[in-house]
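lol so apparently i was supposed to do this last week
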Amino acid sequence: MPLKLTILGSGSAVPNLNRGVTAQFLNFNERRILIDCGEGTQLQLRRFKVKFQRLQYVFISHLHGDHFLGLFGLVSSMSLLGRTKKLKIFAPEGLEEVVRHQFKVTNVYLDFELEFITVKTKAKTLIFEDNSIEVYALPLKHRAECYGYLFNEKEKDLNIDKSRIKEFKLTLDEILAAKRGEDVERKDKVIPNSDITLTPEPLASYAFCTDTSYIPHLADWIKNVRLLYHEATFTNAHLKRAKATGHSTAEQAALIAIAAGAEQLILGHFSSRYKETSALLEEAKPIFDKVLCVEDGQSFHLK
Ligand SMILES: [Zn+2]
Ligand SMILES: [Zn+2]
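anyway here it is w/ zinc ion bound
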C-alpha cells in the first residue's frame, strides 16, 4: 500500500515560478489527501502527475491566502471536468462560508457535494479515523486560527509465522488470538505471542506543522513521529520578524524535531528573501542531523 507524501508547493506568501505556495499531496494507504491548497495548486497537481479527481479529503491549516486561495479554482475545475464524488474538507471556521458565498454570487452550481468539517480545538484532538488512519488536529500559534495535522497509521492484526502453525499445532481460535496480540494459553503451558507472530513493521506517521511560532509543547503532541514537516520561514537572523509574524526559524524547527524524537525533518514555507536554502539548512543541521529543505515536486516515502 502506498504511503507517500508529495510536496506541491514549498514557498510562502506569494507563488512564483520556482516555488508554489503551500500544498501537499498525501497518499496514505490509498486515502488521497490534499493538505493546504495555495493559489495555483491545481497546476502543481497536474505538473507532478497527481490525479485531482481522485482526491477524497482536504485539510486546510488556516485562512491565509497562501494556504487556501487555490481551493476555488480546484473545486471549480473538478466540477467542470465532471466530478460527482463527494469531497470532504476539514478547515477552521469561516472557510465554508467563504467558499459557499463565492459560488453563490458567481452562480456556480457544483455537481458534487462539498462536505465541510469545522476544526475548532485548543488541544490535540482526533478529528477523523477509519480502519487504517487517524488524523489529529494540532492547534498552532499564528496570527490567524491555525492547525497542524498529524496522520497516524493504525495498528493492524499481527501476521502469524506460518512455520509455527504446524510446530505448535495451532487451532483456528489460537491463531485468531495470536493475531490480536494475545499469548496462546494451554493447560500445560503458555506460548508467548512473540514465538508465533512476525515482528510488525513500524507504523507510518506524518506531522504537518505550518505557520506557527515556536511552541515547545508541540513536540509532546507528535512524539516519535516518523516524518515531520515544520515551517522554517526565517533563519535566526530574522528572529524578531519570525516572532512578530507568528513564524518559526530553522533552528526552532530543529528543536521541535529533536524534542519530539522525530525520524526525519523536512523544512518548508520559506520566505522569498532566501534565494537558496543553504542558510536555513546550516542552521538546523547541528541540532537535528536528518533534515532537508524541500523543493516542489519532491516525494517522501513514509515507510
Ligand atoms: Zn503561510
Ligand atoms: Zn499564515
